[in-house]
């Protein structure tokens, strides 16, 4: 008789400092919130917590949209929910692509049956607004879908002019803010966004698995016309399926039908899915921590502004340190996100072996790259809980040793010294 397979021991992960493009080390306060006990789905505590989460994320997205909620799933679930809910087969969508995640928006749109118009740029650059405007004029899409910060290239597409352009050409404006929100300026209402979605695992300092999103009234109207309430949970006596317009193509997904999800989060409390309560607790804590940041005294920053300034400070210190180690930076630095830095892997260094050594010897994780950048660029994240001075300095010290052992000539202490210099220039001991 073969002996029974051994039962694995309890989860006990090794200590890691996650300094890649995400996920990053989770803020311990978020982990603690996620260990709280569940309540029933319609318990008054649960429904009032859902209301708090909506209000907190309105402040994080900087919007007054009533339709602000969580989709249960990773950031990709939020993207898919927005696109499948807005796009009917044959609808035109314009997708400017400047990295991997633009391709994802195009791919998901294609699966929705939309007519996808791609606008492509070399990775390491972003689009001038005029290029997007010309395409809007030519394509006349129903939706303009753009990634804000594309983690694959570390760059952020400026969005401030695009909302007005999209509106002028009759398009709804959607952005994927997974990598950028909380660490970079973001103004959903002021930028004219009709939809924005994100995740927790980058600047919001949480784990992946919840996708906060917000929808303008115009987006909600489009969704309401296409939404269907499934049989079995329709209100008693309702003759039809609750759809706004009988001739509108129904949303092709039940799980991601944002019309049903909105009814779950709204006063109807439609029994659509069982909310992922533990993720709800985590998402609530992520937003709460962000919004309570900074004391706001003596002209000091508060809330999202303070969090963005923290990411800018530590991102700049890391950048100075990487230059001090002799790295060449990747991409147009004038539009780089505060929280991820791309560096060219020095000649003669094996990128994947280097990353493995960094993890093995120092417990520090940095990121590889995709597509045309694979093997050429490392991505170093400074975000969320790890947008901290000690995390920056530890990573630079470990990278120096890695380079030295790989035979690269580095100025001893050059990375840490340059970062400390950047902190001193910023006048902070943070
Ligand atoms: C810009 C961007 N969009 C979407 C995603 C997909 O997120 P998830 O893996 O949480 O689905 C990522 C993940 O890194 C991202 O950086």
Q: For the residues shown, what is the average pLDDT?
A: 95
Can you count the beta strands?
13
The amount of beta strand, in percent, is 5-15%
Radius of gyration from the alpha-carbon trace, in angstroms: 23 Å
Helix content: 25-40%
Overall structural domain count:
2
* Name of the CATH superfamily of the largest domain: Type I PLP-dependent aspartate aminotransferase-like (Major domain)
Global outline: globular
Sheet/helix structural class:
alpha/beta
Layout of secondary structure:
Layout: E1 17-18, H1 28-33, H2 44-61, E2 67-72, H3 75-86, E3 92-97, H4 100-111, E4 115-120, H5 129-139, E5 143-147, E6 149-150, E7 155-156, H6 162-168, E8 172-176, E9 195-197, E10 210-215, H7 217-226, H8 258-265, H9 277-291, H10 304-324, E11 340-344, H11 351-362, E12 364-365, E13 377-381, H12 389-405, H13 414-425
Parallel strand pairs: 1-12, 3-4, 3-5, 5-8, 8-9
Antiparallel strand pairs: 2-10, 6-7, 9-10, 11-13
Helix pairs in contact: 2-9, 10-12, 10-13, 11-12, 12-13
Bound molecules: pyridoxal-5'-phosphate.
The site of pyridoxal-5'-phosphate has 13 residues, from helix 3.
Structure summarized in a few sentences:
With 430 residues, the protein is an alpha/beta fold.
Structure write-up:
The structure is a single chain. The protein has 430 residues and is an alpha/beta fold. The protein has two domains: 28-285, Aspartate Aminotransferase, domain 2, CATH 3.40.640.10; 300-426, Aspartate Aminotransferase, domain 1. It is 37% helix and 13% strand. The protein is built from 13 helices and 13 strands. It has helices at residues 28-33, 44-61, 75-86, 100-111, 129-139, 162-168, 217-226, 258-265, 277-291, 304-324, 351-362, 389-405, 414-425; strands at residues 17-18, 67-72, 92-97, 115-120, 143-147, 149-150, 155-156, 172-176, 195-197, 210-215, 340-344, 364-365, 377-381. The chain has a seven-stranded mixed sheet, sandwiched between helices. Strands 1-12 form a two-stranded parallel ribbon. A hairpin with a 4-residue loop joins strand 6 (149-150) and strand 7. The longest helix has 21 residues, at 304-324. The chain is globular. The chain starts with 16 loop residues before the first strand and ends in a 5-residue tail after the last helix. It binds pyridoxal-5'-phosphate.
